[in-house]
Structure formats: structure tokens, C-alpha cells
Amino acid sequence: MDGTTTTRAATRPPGTGTARPAAPRALREGAARVLAANWTGTSTVPSRALYPHQWSWDSAFIAIGLRHLSPLRAQVELETLLSAQWADGRVPHIVFNPAVPFDAYFPSPDFWRSTAAGRAAGAPAAVQTSGIVQPPVHALAAWLVHLADPGLSRARSFLARLHPRLAAWHRHLLHHRDLGGAGLAAVVHPWEQGMDNSPCWDGPLSRVPPARPGSFRRADLDHGSPRHRPTDLDYGRYVRLAADYRDSGYGTSPGRRPGFAVEDPSFNALLIASEHALARITAELGAPGTARHARAERLTRILVERLWDPVGGIFRCRDLLAAPPAGALVGERGATGLIPLVLPGLPRAVAAALVRTARGPHFELGGRCRLAPSHDLLSPSFDARRYWRGPAWFNTNWLLERGLRLHGGTAHADGLRAALLDTAMASDFAEYVDPYEGVGCGARGFGWSAALALDLGVAAEAVPDAYDSQDEGARND
């Protein structure tokens, strides 16, 4: 059942649902090869060479694609990640494989020192992890994995075992990371938001002194062109922030603010989407999910109140450490500001404006750019091939495809899906691509690129599943 080429029809017990047609053979076989090559036996690495450990939001996206090949492997993917959860509820952004040499990736376990520096926050003693987090896509992934094979999920008590961990994860973000006091979760490092090198962080990062040159070695430059990676200055700031957070015991408190604190629209939109999913998980387990749906709707309203820019037609990041005391909205337009389109409770006028912005001159989705770039095409900071400063990524475009479809933009969603599938195959499932030319950059055979292309390939030949149409009636006028 856990074989790479197992079909949904073969793994679905009788009476648990209708099997779907397979994705086109070449796509399915190519994605399956990537996911098999990156599989370690209990989890999937994003890239064997460049990212040889388990990453948090990568594993969530990978599980969404794996569910079409082996629902069991998809369940194990999430179970492995959540088994490294800290006692305070956080899900670390990296779970380190002890068989990988320290010099294969930086920052390595000896930098994070999770078992020592994170002891007070409840870091696990049996596994080394980082101490920061990544976007909370996990409840959404768990719900979709459950839908792939409800019979198997129930037989293994998959949701029943994950539910308390997912609930603790959300509590951690909503209680420990509400640094702005308004209800949204803040990130304390650009790596936590996932779009590591976005120009949206240039302003907040400018206040951070970089780590001393020579105090760290960049393993990423062994596998990628320096022209496509973060600069040494930016990387030095990332290292300084991470070291300071580690030395604080991986905690935040009103009396000890971090050097970087940003309310990000994408991070919070994914938290809200996962709250809706966690409500469905709760209901599946026999308890009411009403309170979680209500919390998700409340957070959606706060997101609009705090981060929506009606003039720019996009959500913006809020730099909590900038003056005035309540923080200031960041001027740069990033793909992060489009991701709230995945929310079912988004006001119609806001959703319509986001679609116009995505298709307008700043992103040109469906025009010169078949896939949405990660940053504003008109910004002086835009770079078509430098990490998160302009290239198109498959995970953000997968989210946009779902958002367009959710809010009635079926034709736009169909076009984006076709473009994503073509680009994934042509680029050999690249980590990211030039948004104009579709040329692959970074790693090839990248985990979530293969997984999410597979997910959309299956969807292209199938009727919508229960999630595709969820909350259609929950949008607000």
C-alpha cells in the first residue's frame, strides 16, 4: 500500500468514495520518480543535495501530492513531522536527519542546539530540530490526506492522533505569536514566513546587524549560483536573527522583543485556512467545529482590517517594530499579498481586487507571466531569477489556483493550472522558474514542485473533491 505507484483506486477500501482517473501518465510517472527519489523511509526531503532534511511546510505540500500515490505514505509524512513537535506546540521548520553530515547544510544542528537552547520551550530530546517555524499548512494537508482514503485514515486513527498536535500548534501561534496584540500571528525571522529572501523583508531586516563575516559557511552556494541566491549581507542578517533567537531560549515575550517581527498576510491566511480544515477534522471526529469556523472568520476580518491596502489592491506585511508604535505597512508588493485569495470568507470586493492585481501590471498572471512571480514586476527590487525576489514558485501558484477557483475565476484557474503543469514538466520539477521564460532555477526534482503538479494533474482529469468546493457559501458580501 505504501508503494510509490499505488493508485487511489487500489488504496481506497470499498465504499469509501469514488476513484478518480489518473493524471496524465508522463506527469504522474515523473512526479512519482521525484517523490520516490526524495523519500527517506519516513519522510520526503525537498532536494537530496540542497535540502537533505525534512522541512515543515514542504512536507505539508508534499503530503498533498503523495495522497494520490500512497495515502499511507502521505499520512506517515505528516506523522513524522509532527512527532518532532515541541512541548509548547511549535512545529519546527527543520527536522534533522542524523545520518546527514553537519557540513551538508547550514544552519546545521550544532547551530540550532535545540535540545539545549530549546529545553525550556520543550524541544524534544530524541531529535534535533531548528527552533523557528514555517507557515501552518499542516491541518489543511491532513484534511486533504484524509479525504484521499477515509477508510485507511479511520482504520489508522490518523486524524484522531494528529488532532491534538494540530490544535496545540495553532494555540502556539495564536497565543505566543500575537506580538501585535490584534490577534494575528507574527513571524520573527524571514525563514519562518517561507518566502525567505523577499524584498518585503528588506526594510525590517535593515535594522539587523549581520553576523560577522567568516563566522558561518554557506552550504547553499555549493549547489546554486550566487546570482540566484540571497546576498552575503542578507544571509548574515538571517544568521544573526537566528542566533539571537536561539540565545534567548527560543522565546518571545512583551519584555523581550525579537529584532524582527512582521505580521504577514500569507502566513496568517494559511493559518486561517488550516483553522477551517481543523474545524472539519474536529467534526469528522464527532465534535462540533463551529467554534473553529467562527475563529477563522474572525481572523479573516482582522486580516482585512490590519493588512488590506484598498488603494494598492493587495495585502501588505506589517512591520511591528517600525514607528508608529502599532507598526507600519511595508511598501513592497509580494506574492504573499495575493495568497489570502484562498480564504472562503474573504469579502467579495477584496477577492475581486486581488484577482485584478494578480492579472494586472504588477504580476501579469496570464499575460507575460504564465505563473505568478514571487514579487512585483515593477519594483526596483524585482529579480527574475534570484531566490524569492521574482521567480515563480509552484506552491504559491498552487495556492493561487485554488483561490481563483474558490472565488469564481474558473477560466483563470484553468489557465494557471495548465501553465503550472506544462512548466513543471518542462523544467524537470524545478525548485522555481523564471516567470517570463519558465526556465528552471535552483534544485531539480524538487519535492513540492512534483507533488503539487501531481495534485493539479489529478484534479484536471477529475471531478472536484470535497475541499475544492468547501465554504462556497461562506463568502461575505
Strand order of the largest sheet: 3-4-7-8
Largest sheet: 4 strands, antiparallel
From the alpha carbons, calculate the radius of gyration and give it in angstroms: 21 Å
Q: What is the approximate shape? A: globular
Helical region count? 18
Spell out the helices and strands N to C: HHEHHEHHHHHEHHHEHHEEEEHEHHEEH
Mean pLDDT: 90
- Note the beta-strand portion: under 5%
Structural class: mainly alpha
- Record field, number of beta strands: 11
Give the low-pLDDT segments.
Answer: 1-22, 465-477
Instruction: Compute the separation of the termini in Å.
Output: 45 Å
What fraction, in percent, of the residue positions are helical?
40-55%
Give a written overview of the molecule:
It is a single chain. With about 475 residues, this protein is mostly helical. About 40% of the residues lie in helices and about 5% in strands. It is built from 18 helices and 11 strands. The strands form 4 sheets. It has a 4-stranded antiparallel sheet. A 3-stranded antiparallel sheet has the order 9-10-11. It has a two-stranded antiparallel ribbon with strand order 1-2. Strand 7 and strand 8 form a beta hairpin. Helix 3 (about 55-65) packs parallel to helix 18 (about 445-460) and helix 17 packs across helix 18. It starts with 7 loop residues before the first helix and ends in a 17-residue tail after the last helix. The model is unreliable at about 1-20 and about 465-475 (pLDDT under 50).
